[in-house]
Design brief:
Elements: H1 16-26, E1 29-33, E2 42-45, E3 51-54, H2 58-61, E4 76-78, E5 84-94
Antiparallel strand pairs: 1-2, 1-5, 2-3, 4-5
């Protein structure tokens, strides 16, 4: 497997609204982990598996690459480098492609 390079890791946003607007456009998967007292429960991924947002410890996880072809509910999350995130996946939500209307804006 080819390990893809992160595209979005170093992006900076002017506001939380600007970030959420961007995330809504780019995120294709929402991974929810079972709560095992770890510091994060939810990740958003792009179509290649790049972690775009972690609810906590984003500085650690953003830019990491998930193997989306082998991920599954009830299993540890596989990474493109062959490692696993040692927390069980509770759910995987495939997010719809979002078309933004002219009236939707961020501050």
């Amino acid at each position: 497997m080819v390990i893809e390079e992160p595209k979005y890791k170093d992006l900076k946003f002017k506001s939380k609204n600007e970030f959420l607007f961007w995330l809504k456009q780019i995120a294709k998967y929402k991974i929810t982990f079972e709560d095992d007292q770890q510091d994060f429960l939810e990740w958003h991924l792009d179509e290649r598996g790049e972690v775009l947002n972690s609810d906590l410890q984003a500085f650690v996880w953003n830019g990491k690459m998930v193997d989306i072809n082998t991920m599954g509910v009830g299993r540890f999350l596989p990474m493109q480098n062959g490692d696993f995130i040692n927390h069980y996946v509770k759910s995987i939500e495939k997010l719809n492609d979002v078309l933004l209307g002219n009236g939707e804006q961020y501050e």
